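Hi Y.,

Following your request, here is the sequence exactly as I used it, all 196 residues.
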Amino acid sequence: MKYMPLALVLIGLGISIFGQWLALSLYLNTKLKKQAENMATFVVAIAGQSSSVELPNPEENLAVVRSPVNNVFVQSKIKDGQDQSSFASVLAKSKDGSTQANIYYKNISLSEFLNFIKSDPISLGISLIGAIVAIFGTLLRPKPKQVVDKSSGILISTAELKALKLAIAFGGIIPKQSLIEAKAILEGIIKKKEGK
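Below is the corresponding structure, written out as tokens. Let me know if you'd prefer a different format.
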């Protein structure tokens, strides 16, 4: 029972981290799948000598291929309002340099990831459950024990008694400071008794 709050905090943090990892892996796998679908569609269209290709997920990729006879293969639709700065590119050339391919892929962004988390209730739920368990564990921390003086009914905390014991123990090492501390602790206990 003593370590239950700490265990709940650790379990909660573990569950929350697992939920975030699950969300990130689902997000990345979904993004990679869309980009792979685009590239597969593009390759099939080029093999069929189509110069204009309609990609299934135009928001994820842009592709341009120039052949040796100056045929240009490009996707037919570019999504309106697409921010070109959110794309990175890869350039590949044939050994003789006559054919080149420019593939642009959308970078990973925090806002896109957060939108994905909002749309994926499983990973969001796991993360929130973990956070709630961790918060619950922090709220369960034990309260300091108190001793009731039977003659006066005054509550004296064990922390005060331990501080007094420590001050007396250090009396041989730091005599004056220990006596001052012990006196202050005893005065606090006496004030509590007189106040009752």
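The chain has a mean pLDDT of 76.

Thanks again,
Q.
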